[in-house]
Write a structure and sequence with these properties.
It is a single chain. This protein has 185 residues and is an alpha/beta fold. It has a single domain, classed as Lysozyme-like, CATH 3.40.80.10. It is built from 5 helices and 5 strands. A 5-stranded mixed β-sheet has the order 3-2-4-1-5.
Length: 185
């Protein structure tokens, strides 16, 4: 399902000239709508209905080296990184898994590859596990220690998918398909 014109406009407005190296995908750990706090920490947010909202910090503030007012979304991995977040998972528990009171929706999940593809195209970021990854993949993939971040290791609507790499492979594969790239790493 393509994005709405309003969402396309938000993505286009967020794309400002900068040299960016990667995109880190998150969930906010909050409700289904982008709050002021959410907008302060991410460049783009996807609400439960698939609406894309622009964050407050501009992407160029996270260009290496990050400048004052940058989006602080990933510990020790903000320079060169674009932060994209799904608005969801308030009160979620990792194990035993419980998606909380605002579980990720299939609609916002389906919007994610469209957002990633637009950003990858604009910033010429290749779609690899090192350059388009979830917050939960940062530590095992990039070797940058994080504070037990498990976004995104589970899909409330896809209980058979478990683990950061499994989830990441799904959104990378969908992003590559939108960009007409081969699906292999």
């Amino acid at each position: 399902m393509p994005l709405s014109p309003k969402s396309e406009t938000a993505i286009a407005a967020a794309c400002v000239p900068a040299k960016m190296e990667r995109i880190v995908v998150h969930w906010t750990g909050g409700g289904h709508k982008a709050s002021a706090n959410d907008r302060a920490h991410y460049h783009l947010l996807i609400e439960a209905d698939g609406n894309v909202v622009q964050g407050i910090p501009t992407i160029d503030l996270n260009q290496r080296p990050a400048r004052k007012g940058y989006a602080a979304h990933t510990l020790r991995c903000n320079s060169g990184s674009i932060g994209v977040s799904l608005c969801c998972m308030a009160g979620a528990i990792e194990a035993p898994f419980h998606p909380g009171v605002a579980p990720m929706t299939k609609t916002q999940w389906d919007a994610l590859p469209h957002v990633l593809a637009a950003l990858c195209k604009f910033y010429q970021i290749p779609v690899t596990p090192q350059t388009v990854l979830s917050h939960a993949e940062v530590q095992p993939t990039l070797g940058i220690a994080q504070k037990q971040k498990w976004d995104i290791t589970r899909l409330p609507f896809g209980p058979a998918v478990v683990g950061a790499r499994a989830v990441g492979e799904i959104f990378r594969s969908s992003t590559k398909a939108l960009l007409n790239l081969p699906k292999g790493d």
